[in-house]
């Protein structure tokens, strides 16, 4: 791989001296030239060879290459690559092409970089055909090899990327036709190449997407613009999936389109999620609008005070919200389950029936809804097939025809039926579960309104009496203050008049005792909690106590829009105790549940009897009790700690008072809660009496010590 300087080998008859022109041409040749002796030694190199291998004149490595120790036929790298065998053929007289190979000069002790080269070994012979020497010409292809390697790596990366992703990659001719195969397209769609080529790929698209996609594609081809859209492709299993597609024109050096390159990306899950989200948003928008209407209807129903006004408002709101042609409110009149039509709302479709007001005879489908206290939702076919759908007596022929039916009973706070609200002939389709839920909510609000209307007169009377009591209490408290004030002033002016001082003192003492008596009445709760009062004991029916407590607590429960459910009974058991005080216990528990349950909650009151004990539980689904507070819930003023902002008002003595009264009766009261947000349950357990219910002569228990 090197040659000695021109004077390294003295001229001999077998080695003619080159002329000056040959020497200059040899030295200035742009390619690397290495002259080999017939035995494989290096005898001459040119400047290009030195630059290629960075082995320069005067260096030890060049001296080594020209020495007898180095021979190309024994060079380990050339032996390993098989090049030494090719050189041996050249030394034997054959002109040989040597393929590309990497040669690292550092293996000889050099410092130059490894180079990729190709070579040609050409023997130089005398007139008799004997090989005088071999000319080895190298071509440096290192840069080309690196470029080809980089290109191959990029192609391999691209191919791996395509295989690793869900994309479909394709290419088209400049005029938009398919000629080259796309295995990824065929794998996705199941089309053969013959089915896919030209414009056959359009057949794999969803029928609704074919025409618009073809139009857009041809327009982009004509305009040489980027093709970008999305369409559904039929998969190999026959299902359609959404894909996003983008195709770009590849521009040649002369400005013409060489080809189109594109890819389809599976976006089916994303599109379906977007569609689902849009549907959900539309539903939520619809629901929000309905809720707004229901809220407005609730406000309307809560602002009217008479039954007639409530009925008229209810049918108008129900028909508008549920988009029905008919809405009717019928209130139950007596035990025969007949209902009078109290309010009707009809669209123009049924306007001619606006005067119909005949009550049912208690045998039809109206009465069944009220007797069962259950919602009934029927299609027109189901309605006409129902055995009880009639019931209008001789006036049945005049009743408006019904086209599908939804009826919800009106139920009072005690669970008794007071009538029903019904709608018929929905504008579009049949009545749905959503319609039912809305009408149930409206019926619940209206039922409370009907009860409130009935109680309104009574409440006004109670309010009047309350005002009278407060006025009297203020008067009674004020009366002693005037004499006390006058007597105190006389003491200031006549401190030396012993008789006047005595009279003034008597006045102050007497009036102070009177005020003390009034305050004692107001502080009765303190005496109860300390067990300092006598109980007015009698044999009592537990259910009468429950009824009285529910009645007293109802205004607060109604104001909070709670549902109160009373269940069970005492099983005939009786208890001995003070009816006023025991009622007061249940009232405190019910009021406590109402106050600490968010509006629209559920309160349950359950009565049971077992093993000579009567158990009464009050439960709610309210805010619950923190585990740290539960052991102290019956202590005085615990409520203040429970709600430091005082939002629930009160001094926090209700539960303490309830416990003391129950203990005075020889019973116990317990509290249970799973923690904040889990609701609460308070249970009162009292001993049952063996004297028999309602027997006034039965022996009553003594007050416990």
Characterization of this structure:
The protein starts with 19 loop residues before the first helix and ends in an 18-residue tail after the last strand. It has 20 helices and 21 strands. β4 and β5 (about 130-140) form a beta hairpin. The protein folds into four domains: about 20-145, 2-Layer Sandwich (Beta-Lactamase); about 165-265, PAS domain (Beta-Lactamase), CATH 3.30.450.20; about 290-455, GAF domain (Beta-Lactamase); about 540-685, Histidine kinase-like ATPase, C-terminal domain (Heat Shock Protein 90, 2-Layer Sandwich), CATH 3.30.565.10. The strands form five sheets. Strands 2-1-5-4-3 form a five-stranded antiparallel beta sheet, with helices on both faces. The longest helix has about 60 residues, at about 435-495. With about 700 residues, it is α+β, with helices and mostly antiparallel strands.
Count every helix, treating DSSP H or I runs of 4 or more residues as helices.
Answer: 20
Task: Report the sheet with the most strands, covering strand number, pairing sense and barrel closure.
Answer: 5 strands, antiparallel
* Rg calc: 53 Å
Mean pLDDT, to the nearest integer, reads 82
Q: Give the CATH H-level superfamily of the largest domain.
A: GAF domain
Report the CATH topology name of the largest domain. Answer: Beta-Lactamase
Which parts are unreliable, with pLDDT below 50 for 5 consecutive residues or more? Answer: 1-17, 639-651, 692-705
Helix content: 40-55%
Beta-strand proportion: 15-25%
Order of strands across the main sheet: 2-1-5-4-3
- Distance from N terminus to C terminus (CA atoms, Å) equals 125 Å
**According to CATH, what is the class of the largest domain?**
Alpha Beta
CATH architecture of the largest domain: 2-Layer Sandwich
